[in-house]
Amino acid sequence: MEFxxxxxxxxxxxxxxxxxxxxxxWPPLTKMMDERAKRIADGLAAxxxxxxxxxxxxxxxxxxxxxxxxxxxxxxxxxxxxxxxLVEEAKSNAKAExxxxxxxxxxxxxxxxxxxxxxxxxxxxxxxxxxxxxILQREVDAAKHAxxxxxxxxxx
Length: 156
Description:
This protein is mainly α.
């Protein structure tokens, strides 16, 4: 194998190419690759943080939803309880009003009964006097008549 000048020239050119590449090309490439690796690592870390944040947000939203459902159930229970109280109050008020009306009606009935009895006593007394007058065929004077009516009323 012969070593000639072209081989030595190629070797020198190759050495200069290696030196040039190591001095001017390689450092920016490694810097760009390091920056890219750092950006990828940061992106993966951000994705992990975002995934963790999403899980936390889902947990919080599930907790809030559960609390909201519980509060809604409590509000519904309170509303039903209040409705039952209102129904009971209405029933008791209606019952009291009915009893009051019944007592008023009974009082009015008693009053009408007393008036009817009094009217009946008056009529009976008048009939008794008229019957006695016809039987006796004489007239009774007004004072005796009033006394007789009052005594008949008292007896009835």
